[in-house]
Amino acid sequence: xxxxxxxxxxxxxxxxxxxxxxxxxxxxxxxxxxxxxxxxxxxxxxxxxxxxxxxxxxxxxxxxxxxxxxxxxxxxxxxxxxxxxxxxxxxxxxxxxxxxxxxxxx
Length: 106
Hints:
Layout: H1 6-19, E1 30-44, E2 47-59, E3 66-79, E4 82-92
Antiparallel strand pairs: 1-2, 2-3, 3-4
């Protein structure tokens, strides 16, 4: 499980990825993301619940191709200038994970 608390933790993780200190993914694999079946679940102003299915394909010269899938669960909040993500849960479709999962693959 990857759990990053708040913007400071996420910002620190992104800095490590950008700086090359995320050694598990150097060189970065080529990854493509497909997001589909976006659904509005509840609409109780100003909060909105939504979900979406996702699929990623990662190609790394050191390993074989990796395909991962699952769904996102979003808690959205309406602000004056648009919607803001209040929460996001990432659920993997796999019961058993073969290998490591990096933040790029979800």
